Amino acid sequence: MDGVPALREPLQQPLKSVLGPATAKVMAEHLGLRTVGDLLHHYPRKYEERGRLTHLADLPMDEHVTVVAQVADARLHTFASSRAPRGKGQRLEVTITDGSGRLQLVFFGNGVHKPHKELLPGTRAMFAGKVSVFNRRLQLAHPAYELLQGEAGETVESWAGALIPLYPATAKMESWKIAKAVQTVLPSAREAVDPLPESLRAGRGLDPLPEALLKIHRPQTKADVADAQARLKWDEAFVLQVALARRRHADAQLPAVARAPRPDGLLAAFDDRLPFTLTEGQRKVSGEIFADLATEHPMHRLLQGEVGSGKTLVALRAMLAVVDAGGQAAMLAPTEVLAQQHHRSVTEMMGELAEGGLLGGAEDATKVVLLTGSMGAAARRQALLDLVTGEAGIVIGTHALIEDKVQFHDLGLVVVDEQHRFGVEQRDALRGKGKQPPHLLVMTATPIPRTVAMTVFGDLETSVLDQLPAGRSPIASHVVPAADKPHFLARAWERVREEVAKGHQAYVVCPRIGDEEDAPGKGAGKKSPESGEAADKRPPLAVLDVADQLAKGPLNGLGVEVLHGRMPPDDKDAVMRRFAAGDTDVLVATTVIEVGVNVPNATVMVITDADRFGVSQLHQLRGRVGRGSAPGLCLLVTEMPEASAARQRLNAVAATLDGFELSRIDLEQRREGDVLGQAQSGARSSLRVLAVIDDEEIIAEARAEAAAVVAADPDLERLPGLRTALDALLDEEREQYLEKG
After folding, report:
1. CA-CA distance, 315 to 328, in Å (whole number)?
2. 509: helix, coil or strand?
3. Would you say 412 and 332 are in contact if contact means Cβ atoms under 8 Å apart?
4. Which long-range contacts link 372-380 to residues 24+ away (Cβ below 8 Å)?
5. What is the DSSP letter of 371?
6. What's the whole-number average pLDDT of the chain?
7. Range 687-716 burial, b when 16+ CB lie within 10 A, else e
8. pLDDT tens profile 78-100
9. Which among 436, 418, 610, 593 has a CA at the least distance from the CA of 511?
10. DSSP 8-state symbol, 355
11. What is the DSSP string of 699-735?
């Protein structure tokens, strides 16, 4: 055991002591790489064969790419501009080809001399830059490049034998510079401590870790790459699953008060009141939850349900069962709008059962209180009093529930809505409010493929609601190509007017609010293509501008209001109330309406700049219409060209209402790290080679192996290498990755 820290030293060395301060600074700031070990785990995203060229036809827009290609021709143009009025401005246009497609490179000003000398027709090189469109052609402006000299050229040899690794790079640090840095630290790979138990590694015929690291960075053959990836995928899957297994193991040791439902209490009275019968799915999931509540260990369950599948009802029945058993239940919502809405819908569903202590309340009744940050002092004092005396069986609120001042009489169940907005710290803070840890039910309307659930919510048991309740209408979705077919957009606004004329209501969703200061780079000071930068695409449409244009133009005469996250809570609530009451025809909003807004009379939604939203987000938004008996309509407006990946994404959303199918598409199109919530936190994903969808089997096997290892040795006494890897993962991600904070 004592030797382990010494073994770890080479990989823990800071990069600045090995690569020099300037390079190390860029790597830390732009790639999040700080130690030798970080750099060794920054794997190539793909490999180019020296003789082969990149396929240029499918380059992604607006992304930083590295391509290997051949110069077809190079032309130097002179032109007049404000900086060079006498026609002395110079522009070098170089066309590169891969045999199937072509790509234009442009260099300006003094930057033309070196490439003009070096990029001669027939030259092969690696080029790196951001793909943009100019004059309807793909181009790279001022790309960095590195020549690939002849077959036996020293540069290529020193990089990678036969295969050139291309690394995830940034504009500040090109792939080949990363490759050279990796070259410098690669000898340290021999010191890497192996986290996999020897028996597991040998039993599956996996390479030792030092060998896998050498193969992934300097493969001689494609077989080397495959061996290395197979081994490194196992590392990621296994270390992650061990972390989750330890969390489940720790949770299973906690005591909890069993809360078995009573046959004759609030829950029974509530079920008798329901004007409809529960779906098969709702009954099954309720059964799973009631079984968990009746045990003496805290329930940890994830309830996944499509938008509108009746999750809130299932959660409410669980809360009532706990109140029947003498406990209190708290429901945590991510926003005030949502907390207020849950409070309204719960009190409406419960009727006189929610009027405990009031005249006219039923005898089994309890109190349902709301607790949010913006409540008045008197209402807040009363709510806190009702909680501490136990008068209130159910409380619904925002983060305000977690504050120190909030005391419960006997907290038995916590329901968290939309888990991805809550972190482990908040979950633990709320857990600490019970005399013993309360049971936990996490609800999400984002359908999560099974493997992702095993990876992200691996410490929770999963229940799925996949039927829609009777009486729900289907939603028709269409893509509106505003740039190619402007009359389609005009027709979209006509459809909104038609729905309003029938007595229905509409949402218009925009990506931006519009009261932001014009920050540099936010649309201010766009450079012209001539000055050396491709003109950027226009800033996203904003709620305030769009509402104004619609009210004066196509929706003139209709009642149009706006809703966005920066409005004061009272104003937001007032707008929502007017919309819910049918006083407003059209609500122009940001994605604040994505979660949980319930207005059955709203039948049409127009999403502007739909290409700027993710697939799952579009699906969430669309779920806000068609909640009543009239059919819903969702129009996805975009200016992206037909062949673009963004358009294909929108076509996929329009083609299916199956959220699980869409979440698979979403995952395949984005890096897993984003799907697992890293995009919000800005941290790097700890998944580097593991693909959550393709590697389903590895994840499932790793989960089983991890459970066995943790059951036999919870503190990993006998596996110091695994403990080291686990500390690194938990330290780097501060468990936020596991918890989706």
Report:
1. 13
2. strand
3. no
4. 372/336, 372/339, 372/340, 372/397, 372/398, 372/400, 372/569, 373/336, 373/398, 373/399, 373/400, 373/569, 374/336, 374/568, 374/569, 374/570, 375/400
5. E
6. 80
7. bbbbbbbebeebbebbbebbbebbeeeeeb
8. 876 666 666 677 889 999 988 77
9. 610
10. B
11. HHHHHHHHHHHHHH-TT-TT-HHHHHHHHHHHHHHTT
Residue 35 DSSP label: B
Residue identified by tokens 């691996």 is 458
Q: Would you tell me how many other CB atoms lie within 10 Å of the CB of residue 660?
A: 15
DSSP 578-644: HHHHT--SEEEE-GGGTTT---TTEEEEEETTGGGS-HHHHHHHHTTSS-SSSPEEEEEEE-S-TTS
- Three-state DSSP at 219 gives coil
Secondary structure (3-state) at 38: helix
**Residue 76 and residue 62 in contact, taking contact as beta carbons nearer than 8 Å:** no
Q: Is 494 helix (H, G, I), strand (E, B) or coil?
A: helix
Amino acid making up residue 558: L
Nearest CA among 644, 627, 648, 625 for reference residue 635: 625
Query: What is the rounded CA–CA span in Å between residue 713 and residue 701?
Result: 18
DSSP per position, 390-428:
T-EEEEEESGGGGSTT---S-EEEEEEESGGG--HHHHH
Query: Which one, of 402, 333, 374, lies nearest residue 573 by Cα?
Result: 374
Helices (H), 161-208: 175-185, 198-203
Q: Which pTM value belongs to this model? A: 0.62
- Sheet order of strands, 632-638 included: 475-481, 632-638, 602-607, 505-509, 586-589, 560-563
Calculate the CA 452 to chain-centre distance.
Answer: 12
What count of other Cβ atoms lies within 10 Å of the Cβ of residue 450?
15
Rounded CA separation 466/459 (Å): 22
Nearest of 576, 514, 505 to residue 549 by alpha carbon: 514
**Residue 118 main-chain phi, psi, to 5 deg:** -95, -35
Report how far residue 233's alpha carbon sits from residue 403's, in angstroms, rounded to the nearest whole number. Answer: 41
Amino acid identity of 317? R
Distance, CA of 372 to CA of 369 (rounded, Å)? 10
How many Cβ atoms are within 10 Å of 21's Cβ, its own excluded?
Answer: 10
Residues 217 and 179: their CA atoms lie apart, in Å, by 8
Q: pLDDT per residue over 587-598, tens digit each?
A: 998 887 765 567
Cα gap 144→64, rounded to integer Å? 11
| Pairwise CA distance, residues 381 & 398, whole Å | 16
**3-class secondary structure for 447-469?**
CCCHHHHHHHCCCCEEEEECCCC
Q: Which two tokens stand for residue 25?
A: 């600074």
- What's the pLDDT score for residue 53? 62
Ranges in the chain, pLDDT < 50 = 1-8, 151-161, 517-536, 671-685, 734-741
- How far is residue 362's CA from residue 355's CA, in Å, rounded to a whole number? 7
3-state helix, strand and coil shares in percent for the chain, rounded to the nearest 5: 45, 20, 40
Chain centre distance of CA 416: 18
> Whole-angstrom Cα distance, residue 210 to residue 185?
12
Calpha distance 428→348 (Å, rounded): 31
Phi/psi at 298 (5° precision): -65, 135
Which residue, among 269, 369, 21, 245, has the nearest Cα to 709 in the 3D structure?
245
Q: Strand 367-371 relative to strand 392-397: parallel, antiparallel, unpaired?
A: parallel
Alpha-carbon distance of 278 to 663, in angstroms, equals 27
- Residues 387 and 400: their CA atoms lie apart, in Å, by 13
Cα-trace Rg, the chain:
29
Report the interhelical angle of 222-253 vs 720-733 (nearest 10°). 80
